Amino acid sequence: MASVKVFGSPTSAEVARVLMCLFEKEVEFQLIRVDAYRGTKRMPQYLKLQPQGEALTFEDESLTLSDSRGILRHISHKYAKQGNPYLIGTGALERASIEQWLQTEAQSFDAPSAEMVYSLAFLPPTLPKQNDNGNGGAFNARDATVGSNADASSGKRGVAGSQPAASQTKVSAQKEEEMLKLFEQRKKDLEKLLDIYEQRLEEATFLAGDNFTIADLSHLPYADHLVSDPRSRRMFESRKNVSRWWHDVSGRDTWKYVKTLQRPPSTSTDASAKNGQLGQQQHLPSSTDGHGVKTQRLVQNERHF
Question: Which InterPro entries does the entry mention (predicted)?
């Protein structure tokens, strides 16, 4: 049995970061899904493990952590001699640069990108112009529930409640206007930051230097949502260096595999979970990590709450 355990849903940005780091470092672990797809009826069991209801709990022997960036640092340091050797840097200067850009992501990228993703869940497929008096597009009521695309499982952003039918149209129009304002403001904030990234990536392949590190990795969950949505994609594509960087970091096998884990569990998996059975071992095909080193990654056992 693996000593490392990850409790949470892969659809959470916090959990997705940790899973990718574990794959990069070739650390065997057990994923115990506290799944957003299963609703609140599963929560009491999880709250026994995590009384604060955090989206993520990480266990490594006797150590328990819940902050994803702190977990990235822990994994990269403790398992420095296996998997990708560059995640935390190889010298003091490189590690200082990694820490600088990791802090930039946490303080300046995370909040505006998360709120953009959240607002997009409430907005129509074609964004209306700000001065169209709210008639720029039809609001889809099914968007009122924020699913995995808005990372509702982060624990920081809730889901919209249902409204009485008589007031649904009015409330939806108000919500759409509110979300449009939020989207536009956070878009301005994020574009200013991406302009800084564009300059930085003119002189370096990745944010902290010539190697992919946890500073790049930490951006992936929310950036992936934004690039996947045509309403926000151009922020990345219109900046040559940012676009090149995104193509490189999002194309890694480890991230592609994390995204497969974000899909809803199959019926057969659900049945096994209800019967208390452990999931089958899941393997990634052997691949190279960009430095000619062949790797094979393993999720040892997968269980569900």
Answer: Glutathione-S-Trfase_C-like, Glutathione-S-Trfase_C_sf, Glutathione_S-Trfase_N, GST_C, Thioredoxin-like_sf
- Sorted by sequence, the CB contacts under 8 Å of residue 129 that are 6+ apart come out as 136
The two three-digit tokens of residue 196, written as one number: 């800084």
271 in a structural domain: no
**Chain segment 192-229, per-residue pLDDT in tens:** 999 999 999 999 999 999 999 999 999 999 999 999 99
Q: Which structural domain, as residue segments, surrounds residue 248?
A: 4-124+171-264
Report the CATH number that the domain containing residue 63 is assigned in CATH.
3.40.30.10
The domain tally of the chain equals: 1
Bigger pLDDT: 102 vs 269: 102
Per-residue H/E/C for the chain: CCCEEEEECCCCHHHHHHHHHHHHCCCCEEEEECCHHHCHHHHHHHHHHCCCCCCEEEEECCEEECCHHHHHHHHHHHCCCCCCCCCCCCCHHHHHHHHHHHHHHHHHHHHHHHHHHHHHCCCCCCCCCCCCCCCCCCCCHHHHCCCHHHCHHHCCCCCCCCCCHHHHHHHHHHHHHHHHHHHHHHHHHHHHHHHHHHHHHHHCCECCECCCCHHHHCCHHHHHHHHHCCCCCHHHHCCHHHHHHHHHHHCCHHHHHHHHHCCCCCHHHHHHHHCCCCCCCEECCCEECCCCCEECCEEEEEEEC
- Asked whether residue 152 carries a pLDDT value surpassing 60, the answer given is no
